[in-house]
Amino acid sequence: MRWPIIRWFVALLIALPLGTFILFPTLWRCLTIVHASDFQPVKAGDRTLYISTDATPRQRDLLFSHVQVASARIRQFWGRQQGKATIIYCPTQDQYAQYCSGGEGAGCSLGMPWGDSFLVLGPEGNSPDVMAHELCHDELFARLGWLTIKRQVPQWFNEGLALMVDYRFSSGGSTARERFLIYDAEWKYRAYGPEGLSPQVVPVLSSLETTRDFFYGDYSRVMLAYLTAGREVSRWLATVGPSALPRLISDLAEGQRFMDVYQFAHIRKAGTSQKNVQSANSPSH
Ligand SMILES: [Zn+2]
Which of 194, 207, 225, 230 has the greatest number of CB atoms lying within 10 Å of its CB? Predict the structure, then answer.
């Protein structure tokens, strides 16, 4: 009786990595980056950067300086940096596509159920904005873990939060209210301006909850999804103040439901009832 169980267990041990390799080759490459001969490991604090041997000395220098700038933004926004994602830098698109599924965007972050995380930067990713954005995803992951993020955190909140340290839309010197006004103006322009989109296709928050829904559609639609997320999170932070984020994180870590805690934080400060709360769910234009 014992042998079939052992045989089954051995088969599982072989099938798991094999399955991972076949189904998720990019994931497998990240997990085995330590053995990749075309990447050089470099220590930066308590984090390891794997830099492609294709990177030029200038690209390497810029990478180190951008990591410093991005980490400073993270410490300013979160209070302290807890994320320990392994950073993988691929200066060519071909190599980037090997480590980030589809090779889309400038960077991507991958979190594992057991706590490891990877931040893959492509040719466009050697920038403080892209790094700060991806590192912000990693901070949320470090504080809440894979399961809580999957079950509780809507993608629009994760992306909106990352936009607060990514200054491609807003500037670093903006106050919370200024940041909201910038996102609001950009959102209105994209949603109802010369782009010609009709109000029916403007995404609402409830349609941006999963990764799949958030990144669905063409460039214009995904950009609008980002702006909707940035507009909502900047509005939330401008309304409830910076102390709301650590409170929200600790409530989620205790097992509370996202929408209960998120709405509650908003309502408590606003001192109003739920039906009077205006959010990006009910756009005014
Ligand atoms: Zn993102």
Answer: 230
Determine how many CB atoms are found less than 10 A away from the CB of residue 7. Answer: 10
Output the CA 3–ligand 1 centroid distance in Å.
47
Q: Which DSSP helix (H) or strand (E) runs through 108? A: strand 107-111
Report the candidate in 272, 195, 264 with the shortest Cα–Cα distance to residue 236: 264
Q: Residue 272 — φ and ψ, nearest 5°?
A: -135, 175
Residues 6+ away with beta carbon under 8 Å from 243: none
C-alpha triplet 246, 249, 252: angle, nearest 5°: 150
Measured in angstroms, how far is the CA atom of residue 137 from the centroid of ligand 1?
A: 7
Domains, the chain, ordered by start: 2-144 (3.30.2010.30), 163-276 (no CATH)
Q: What is the C-alpha separation between 72 and 67, in angstroms, rounded?
A: 9
160 CA distance to ligand 1 middle (Å): 8
Q: Are 33 and 86 in contact (CB under 8 A)?
A: yes
Joined together, the tokens standing for residue 241 give 């103040």
CA 159–ligand 1 middle distance (angstroms): 5
Read off the pLDDT of residues 120-166 as tens digits, 9 standing for 90 and up: 999 999 999 999 999 999 999 999 999 999 999 999 999 999 999 99
pLDDT per residue over 73-122, tens digit each? 999 999 999 999 999 999 999 999 999 887 788 998 888 899 999 999 99
